[in-house]
Amino acid sequence: TQPKNRELLADLNQAQRDAVTHVGGQLLVVAGAGSGKTRVLTRRIAYLLAERKVHPGQVMAITFTNKAAAEMRERVVELVGRRANAMWVSTFHAMCVRILRREAKVLADVLAGSSGVTSNFSIYDADDSRRLINLVARDLDIDPKRYPPRGLAAQISNWKNELMTPLDAKAAAASDAERKAADVYPEYQRRLEQANAFDFDDLIMRTVELLRASPDVSEYYRRRFRHVLVDEYQDTNHAQYVLVRELSGTERTESGTEPAELCVVGDADQSIYAFRGATIRNIEEFERDYPRAHTILLEQNYRSTQTILSAANAVIARNSGRRDKRLWTDSGEGEAIVGYVADNEHDEAAFVAGEIDALVDDAAAGFKYSDVAVFYRTNNQSRVFEEIFIRLGLPYRVVGGVRFYERREVRDALAYLRVLANPQDTVSLRRILNVPKRGIGDRAEAAVASYAERERISFSDALRVAATSGSEVGLAARSANAIARFVELMNELGKLVEADEPPADILEAVLERTGYRAQLDESDDPQDATRLENLTELVTVAREFGEMPEAFQTEADAVAAAEDAEAAGVDEPEQATLAAFLERVALVADTDSIPDADGDAEDDADDSDDDAGVVTLMTVHTAKGLEYPVVFGTGWEEGVFPHQRTFGKDDELAEERRLAYVAITRARRRFYVSRALVRSAWGQPMYNPASRFLDEIPAELVEWRREEPTNGATSGGLPRAATTWGRGGGFGNDSAQARLAAGGMRSTSFSGWKDDWKKTAALELAVGDRVNHDKYGLGTVVSTDGSGPRATATIDFGTSGTVKLMLMGSVPMVKL
Ligand code: ATP
Ligand code: MG
């Protein structure tokens, strides 16, 4: 059906309409949650195509996740038809990969440190990059205990997000740890180049460098993309900010190209990625950086009930230094927020499951499973929900938490493919060198690595030398033979790639000929059966990928887009090559994207009308930008949410509070909030007081289904009826808390409240104190927090890990 342009504006308010139809220059839309920012962005694109006759090839839209990109594309196609497929709608990372592949030749010419780059480069994810940093740090004799690779990697990532080169980093490094990271940085970059690989941060940084170094390339993209649109602008980091500026331009170029129309939308209160270098500054200073920019505020919320909105507003109001926003809704009061204090995490999960069941059963309420989302602060909290959902037969999926692409066997299989696509990919090559075991031991690997260093050649090339002349590399004949067989195997497999066989066939061949599948087949370990299933799943993903180019729903769409692209003189739609498959996988597996629970890269199909869909489980971070009729906010406890790591750090606590704001504002009609009195962490019971965010929700908005008991005499189960003390979530009753804190038992049953606690005084500890714990052994106090019943200490128990413990109660620990 051909859309009527009028309809594009019909269901928008005046401010939204202004944003959609605004012509020229830069446009900033700042507004609270649920005010229609994403809707404005989508409509604006549709309006550009339908009304202002902009060619789809001139539009670049940037979203925060692959899923959001797919949805936006789908919406625009619905509004203006399939020719919209020629737009670029993607994440920053995907967009940069596309540019870098296209410009690999130029890149190799104009950028120092990129001479080894070809268009089949590998994309290193966080794990790959940590492995490489580990190798570099080892070669530089950096003590991994004092300077863990994770920390070095984080520091280098921060520098890249600030567009700081190794030289900049060296000059800026202020602490010992930073100086070590600055030593690693240039060598790490050299090895990346040698491996023909980019890490995620490089994708952005190198694209910026490319645009700056090559006026031709820069001019090409400026001329091409006349419209640049960015959603979730508050979560862009400095590098991304500069990238947007380079792409859209601020001044007319020498050859007369005007800056693109730039439209960014965001909400400073929803900035939740500062830990990855995101900076609200980008919003706050947009007007300064673009003096002619036009700003539009949206104030009406269309998503939530007044109750939900009031709760969210009250929580975020506690953050200082923010612009106060007047967000209102005319959708009515709605239902009260439901609160629940659980005995433990299992009880909490049982409550959530029971409530979901009741909601879906209630025909009058009209909720489906797919209307419900359960949020938690960290991924590991999903397990308890999964267990009970499975037991009760409640359909669910975990978003982002399953980490299909992080499983060992999946990574191994992909590493083979990556080496086949890019033989210089050292990290992948070393990963599979002796997997499955083929007699190439650590010593042989080390000999090849040091030969490569000595001769300044790549590991891959050194391996080839070893295969033909083991003695040259200093290898025993047996190792050299094993390496020769491996090189031969990879050569054979490489022929399949040269012949452009479908990725799925190449993958099958890898699993067969390397003996990887046989080894799992023969194993008695039940885990290996799961591994086989996962590999089968990976083959399926590859198979499906091969069948249809990305982003096209039907053959006709693909053809139409190809014609469109041709007419506009833009890129061909992507081919289903091995490189394209690997790129797709790398981007789907990106931590800021949302792969489906079962790990396949297909779009959700759970919203179809004829099925009730599934409940979604996810972290609050992944929920950004989404909305659900019913939301369960779980684990609202001090130490969990806000996360313990943020205690005592004002800026990080402010970020946690924004996260709470994001959580509440995802809900359309119902919001539940729960916490557990006891939660096991590291196999130990933790007694966490109510989250401060819970206290910040006005009491009159919450209806407590179950509160914290006031009376210590209960045994065999907390009273189900609510006993009131203050506001249920509050922290007004020290004796109750003391009783809770005095546990020491691990209760896993839903009513598992035992009365074997004993009341003891809190252990007094200070930073630096040495302790001996019955289970963890000797440790040193690294930090303390809270006082009285809230007192906790974080203690480093060496190889047993770092553990946070409540100090009140029968802690099996003595101060030394
Ligand atoms: P967030 O900050 O969470 O990303 P947002 O500002 O992007 O939120 P949207 O997701 O675009 O908000 O919109 C929130 C909801 O309100 C959506 O369901 C959207 O369809 C609806 N909506 C937005 N504007 C209107 C309108 N003018 N009339 C009716 N519904 C609207
Ligand atoms: Mg949005």
UniProtKB/TrEMBL annotation:
<feature type="binding site">
    <location>
        <begin position="31"/>
        <end position="38"/>
    </location>
    <ligand>
        <name>ATP</name>
    </ligand>
</feature>
<keyword id="KW-0413">Isomerase</keyword>
<dbReference type="InterPro" id="IPR000212">
    <property type="entry name" value="DNA_helicase_UvrD/REP"/>
</dbReference>
<dbReference type="InterPro" id="IPR013986">
    <property type="entry name" value="DExx_box_DNA_helicase_dom_sf"/>
</dbReference>
<keyword id="KW-0067">ATP-binding</keyword>
<feature type="domain" description="UvrD-like helicase ATP-binding">
    <location>
        <begin position="10"/>
        <end position="305"/>
    </location>
</feature>
<feature type="domain" description="UvrD-like helicase C-terminal">
    <location>
        <begin position="306"/>
        <end position="625"/>
    </location>
</feature>
<dbReference type="GO" id="GO:0003678">
    <property type="term" value="F:DNA helicase activity"/>
</dbReference>
<keyword id="KW-0238">DNA-binding</keyword>
<dbReference type="GO" id="GO:0016787">
    <property type="term" value="F:hydrolase activity"/>
</dbReference>
<dbReference type="InterPro" id="IPR014016">
    <property type="entry name" value="UvrD-like_ATP-bd"/>
</dbReference>
<dbReference type="InterPro" id="IPR027417">
    <property type="entry name" value="P-loop_NTPase"/>
</dbReference>
<keyword id="KW-0547">Nucleotide-binding</keyword>
<protein>
    <recommendedName>
        <fullName>ATP-dependent DNA helicase</fullName>
        <ecNumber>5.6.2.4</ecNumber>
    </recommendedName>
</protein>
<dbReference type="Pfam" id="PF21196">
    <property type="entry name" value="PcrA_UvrD_tudor"/>
</dbReference>
<dbReference type="InterPro" id="IPR005751">
    <property type="entry name" value="ATP-dep_DNA_helicase_PcrA"/>
</dbReference>
<keyword id="KW-0347">Helicase</keyword>
<comment type="similarity">
    <text>Belongs to the helicase family. UvrD subfamily.</text>
</comment>
<dbReference type="Pfam" id="PF00580">
    <property type="entry name" value="UvrD-helicase"/>
</dbReference>
<keyword id="KW-0378">Hydrolase</keyword>
<dbReference type="Pfam" id="PF13361">
    <property type="entry name" value="UvrD_C"/>
</dbReference>
<dbReference type="InterPro" id="IPR014017">
    <property type="entry name" value="DNA_helicase_UvrD-like_C"/>
</dbReference>
